[in-house]
Structure formats: C-alpha cells, structure tokens
Design goal:
9 helices, binds S-adenosylmethionine, alpha/beta
Length: 250
C-alpha cells in the first residue's frame, strides 16, 4: 500500500499503487446531498460495479457520451500541454482518453470526494507520473491560486445544490491561471421542439433533483461576480439537452 499525502486533506494516489484505504482523518466529509441522492450511483460498491460500463454511461446520455467527450478532447487538442484539472471522476473512458492525450509537458490532476471513485478511476489509468488523483471536495480545493491552465467539470454541476455548485465554480475559477480555460459539460434546457424534454423532466425530477436548475438558469449566472470571465463558446447538443461551455478566466 502506498498513500501519499500532498496536502493535509488531499491524498495523492498513484494509479495502481492506490488501494483505496485512505486514513479517515484525511478524507473530506461526504456531503449530505451526495449521501442522500447519489449513494446508489457513486458511494455503494455495487453502484460502481454496475455503472462502470461504457455502454451504460453512453445509454444514460442517450448515446451522446462519446460525442461529448470527443468535443472536449478535440478542443484540448491531441497534445494537451500545461496543467489540467478534472473536477470529479466520471464513469467511462473520459479520463483515460485525457491521459492518452497528455503532451510531454502536460499534467492531469483529478479530484473526487469519494475514495471509492478514485480507486475505480485508478484501475482505468495507466501508471503515469503526470497523472495524480486527489481526495478533495470541489468546494474546497487544496490547490494554490492560479495553478492550472485548464479545468474540466463533466456533469458535476447538475448533481450539486445551488450553494455547493456556486462554490465549486468559484474554486474552479480560483485555481485557473489568467488566460486559463474552464470547460463545463452538463445538462441544459432542451429546445421547445425536442421531445426529450417530456421524457427527461420526470426522470430528472425523480433521480436528479438539482439538475433542472440547469434548465432554468444559465451556468454563467452562478459564476463569481467581479471577475473577468468571458464565455468563448457555448454549444448545445442533442436538441439542447446538453451543453458545453468554454470560459476564459483573466
Ligand atoms: C462528475 S459527477 C457525474 C459524472 C457522470 N454521471 C458520469 O459518470 O459520467 C460524479 C462524481 O462527482 C463526485 N462529487 C460529487 N460531489 C462532489 C464534491 N463536492 N467534491 C468532489 N467530488 C464530488 C462524486 O463522488 C462522483 O464521483
């Protein structure tokens, strides 16, 4: 077993060397919204076994998983240089693909609040000293200001209550360098003619109680005020049900 502690709260696990046994004192408290709403998807070991299937994550996004990942990766380019931060793990092959695209001078840090998710991710990655996994809360990142060139939020915001979501965004912006890019992939309000709005509305209401906030507000409304953040691109997918935002922080 090898567990390195890079900061008082952040455990850095080096792919296969990580066995999931975090000292409890070093792991952040699991927030209530995660325990109450998403225990079956992320916390319970059976949930991880069930959901960690490429076809299933693709099905959950109505066949759009690869398309959304492709869009992020093509934005980053085939040689991802600089420091990249992925805020929260995701099922499927997004992070392994990011790892594959890392340039010689690139680095990838991935944080998640759940050791079980980091353990699962570690199993999917190649041993690579440029990639580091940290057990951290997205609302309290243990990184210095202006540490990263890219930050990625892949379907995290819709799972968080408003106050948590705002803190996550504030932290993502804080750790980006001037000129750094924040990429957000998440739900959005489907266009009026998209029948998915009638299918997804009850599903989200039942399973993802905070998600419909993204139908009702622009993500940019939750960004910290008084900062120079420009929206470079906003692309909608699948009749508007999904969006990718590219923001530049100055
Ligand atoms: C990125 S989101 C959704 C990913 C998407 N459903 C998928 O798998 O493609 C799921 C992750 O967010 C993590 N998460 C939720 N709240 C968090 C927080 N406050 N800090 C860090 N990670 C968090 C969960 O532990 C989970 O691993």
């Amino acid at each position: 077993m090898k567990i390195e502690t890079s900061t008082p709260m952040a455990n850095h696990c080096n792919n296969k060397q990580y066995d999931g046994l975090y000292p409890k004192i070093l792991t952040p408290v699991i927030p209530l919204y995660l325990q109450a709403t998403y225990w079956w998807a992320y916390i319970h070991p059976r949930g991880v076994r069930v959901f960690e299937r490429q076809w299933l994550v693709n099905l959950i996004l109505w066949g759009n998983y690869n398309r959304l990942c492709d869009a992020v990766l093509s934005d980053y380019g085939s040689q991802l240089e600089g420091n990249t931060l992925q805020i929260a793990c995701a099922y499927g092959n997004l992070t392994p693909r990011l790892e594959l695209n890392l340039g010689a001078q690139g680095s990838l840090d991935v944080i998640d609040i759940l050791p079980i998710q980091l353990h699962n991710l570690a199993e999917k990655l190649q041993p690579d000293t440029r990639v580091k996994l940290h057990c951290m809360d997205s609302t309290d990142l243990k990184f210095q200001n202006q540490n990263f060139d890219h930050a990625l939020l892949f379907f995290l915001l819709h799972e968080q209550p408003l106050d948590v979501r705002k803190k996550t965004l504030a932290e993502a912006v804080r750790v980006l360098r001037p000129g750094g890019m924040l990429t957000i992939v998440d739900y959005a309000k489907p266009r009026w003619f998209n029948p998915m709005r009638y299918i997804m509305s009850p599903i989200l209401r039942l399973l993802e109680p905070f998600a419909r906030d993204l139908w009702q507000s622009e993500v940019t409304a939750w960004l910290p005020e008084n900062l120079n953040i420009s929206l470079l691109r906003k692309q909608k997918y699948f009749g508007g049900l999904y969006q990718i935002l590219t923001l530049k922080v100055d």
